[in-house]
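Subject: for your reference before the review

Hello V.,

The reviewers asked for a structural picture of the protein, and I figured it would be easier to keep everything in one thread rather than splitting it across files. Below is the amino acid sequence we used in the manuscript, unchanged from the supplementary table.
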Amino acid sequence: MQQRILLSFALGLVLVVAPACRHTRPGIVCDATSLVPGATISCHMPGYDDRDFLLALPAPPLDSNTRAILALHGGGGNKEGFDTLTCPKGDKASPDCFVASASRAGYMVVIPDGYPNALGFRSWNHGGDGPGEHCTNACDKRVDDVGYIGDLLDYVGRLTGANTAKVAVTGFSNGAGMAHRLACDLSERLRAVAAVSGAT
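And here is what came back from the structure prediction:
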């Protein structure tokens, strides 16, 4: 009887969580006409199926002096959920959310999607194999997330004309682990790392 109750609970949890994990806005093919100051747009990443990204543009117009921040969601999260996690009390209208604060300061924020499994659960291959460090799916499949991030920064630089030669990176949980990995494996592209609640 107890096993049936646990099985029913687990199935119910899957039915609730799986659609939430799967939800992610498909990206459009972004170009210069998409780049409206202060807007946040979902862009398709050429060459990567289901690895789109959000581009949060600063209020001032973009130029070669515009600096970029790369923001990486946690395991099971997605690009849309990252900013909400930073908002006081989860209030997406708050001016103190990460993206709104960065935009006012003149930064462009790039928020990519991690690698999805069959249920849409997204993760980053941060390379950890120790206790509490392993990530499912992206690590198991040895996804080249360092290569993906390098290609993403190149593409965003070409698309916007902003400075993506040296970016700041932040991440939460599995995204923090990925930020640490980038500090080791893509250090030539980074100027700062702020990792939150993630193992190295």
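For the response letter, the relevant points are probably these. Residues 1-22 have pLDDT under 50 and may be disordered. Helices lie at 2-22, 79-86, 98-104, 145-160, 174-185.

Happy to draft the paragraph if you're swamped.

O.
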